[in-house]
Fold this sequence. Notes:
Blueprint: E1 3-5, E2 8-10, E3 13-18, E4 21-26, H1 31-37, E5 55-58, E6 63-65, E7 76-78
Parallel strand pairs: 3-7
Antiparallel strand pairs: 1-2, 3-4, 5-6, 5-7
The structure holds FE2/S2 (inorganic) cluster.
FE2/S2 (inorganic) cluster (FES) is lined by residues 44-47, 49-54, 65, 67.
Amino acid sequence: MRRVEAGVTRGQRVAFTIDGASVTAFKGETVLAAARAADMPIAGWCNMGSCGECMVTAASGMRVRACLTPVAEGLSVTTHG
Length: 81
Ligand code: FES
């Protein structure tokens, strides 16, 4: 289900965590965009996968770029190693 809020079409609500803190985002957003919207401190500069400033660790242990990683229900990332 898509929602329109203030002229912006949003995807379904998605809950995930950053450093154990719950964050609500919308399907189609990246982890970095959701973090910024929630005032969570994830660094980032280019927002296109080039600089590597936004690296986070997924629950699988893989290091991923938050600006390229879509949010997903139950996703868990940490900002420290
Ligand atoms: S913000 Fe530059 S790689 Fe993500």
